Amino acid sequence: MAPRDPERPTEPARPDGLAVPTGPTEATQPALLSDLTERLRRVVEELAPDRLSGDDAKRVVAQFSTLERLAQAGRLLAARRVDATQSWAGGAHRSAAHWLAAETGDSVGSAAGLLRAAQDLVAGSATDRALRRGDLSLPQVREVTGAVAADPGSEQALLQGVGGSSLQALREQCRRVRAAATDQRAAYARIHRSRCLRRWTDPDGTFRLDGRLTPDVGARIWARIEDEARAVRSDARRAGTHPPDRACAADALTRLVLGDAVSAPRASIIVRVDAAAYQRGSVRPGERCEVDGAGPVPVDVVRQLAAQASLSAAVADGSDVTAVSHLGRTINARLRTALVARDPVCVVPGCGNRRYLEIDHVVPLALGGRTELRNLARLCSFHHRQKTFEGFTLAGGPGDWHWLPPPLDLPRTDPGDETGGDHAERARRILRRAAGNRQPRPSRIRRPPP
Ligand SMILES: [Zn+2]
């Protein structure tokens, strides 16, 4: 090592020759960042995933996820400054979004969304702090800042929900906040005015379609497509193929438009509306009036749709559905409507899957479970299989479900198998817990003394 030149201003010691010695300031941050980048690059270059245990690999994935969120947070904050100072201008770029898209390799639309989120982000706010801690992914920031800009009072509740819920659930929660904070009729009219259907051709010759429709019209069209997609799927199975859902939907649309559809036009949409909002004619914060799978609509639209045979309306009270008005006559249809309204996505916390959900008896019929709303839940096929065959348990109730893994020694048998030792005892516990959620029937249910 060369001896220190006494004439030069003293620099703090850098034992590894790289680290910036003092806390980062505006001047040292870029140097600190290049240092970190260089170290990270070395870590990734030398990463030997084959030598990691499965659990260590999981930890590494979690660490890289945090790093990614932190990097995205830093990029968002710095991009806001580039936008504000217009330092992107003067080059080949038409806008800050075009510059950012070139920088990130992402689409211009996505870059514009990021800049919008950066502008909506209030410095020093709870969202700002969560972002800087690395608690929020970019899509989460986009959703939360948009909703908080519409209703600043919603921030705490939204941030609390971020950790436990899927992005899809957060998106719906944010959409609800924005809907309650904006003039629904004006927003609906704006969407209606912007309705369109466009086509173009990709460089490889693919025919592409893109459209804009109001949520209720979109939901009705999509419900019809899903009806026909079921027919497409069973045709395919008979022929020994299993096309993905999106391919079935494309075939269904083709058949419907070209007049080759084989399914009966029975598609109905489901609307979830709070009783008070329906009475009043407008939605207040915390209430909802929305088309299942499509989004909020003005109460007026639901009132008009109520006259049509294609609508099922579920009147909700909190997370449970207390009343269902359905034009079908059978109890099954009423229950189904209530369930779809209550469980728009798979009820397993964090899942958020909304495609081809299956209805599950929380307490199996064989264990005395009943076909009634509080004993039914919608699960995606993956979680339904886990519950039915792999010993997973759904506990709790509407609005507060818990997904419990099987005990380690659980024999993987049919859940109704009373000979299954621990399993049978566990099933009885679930049954007792579910019974505790019901209205007490003193003659039949004994509660343990407190
Ligand atoms: Zn699921």
Task: Tell me what the structure shows.
The protein has 450 residues and is α+β, with helices and mostly antiparallel strands. It folds into four domains: 122 residues, no CATH class; 68 residues, no CATH class; 73 residues, no CATH class; 97 residues, no CATH class. 48% of the residues lie in helices and 12% in strands. It has a five-stranded mixed β-sheet, sandwiched between helices. Helix 6 runs antiparallel to helix 7 and helix 10 crosses helix 11. The radius of gyration is 27 Å and the shape is globular. It starts with 28 loop residues before the first helix and ends in a 13-residue tail after the last helix. The N terminus and C terminus are likely disordered.
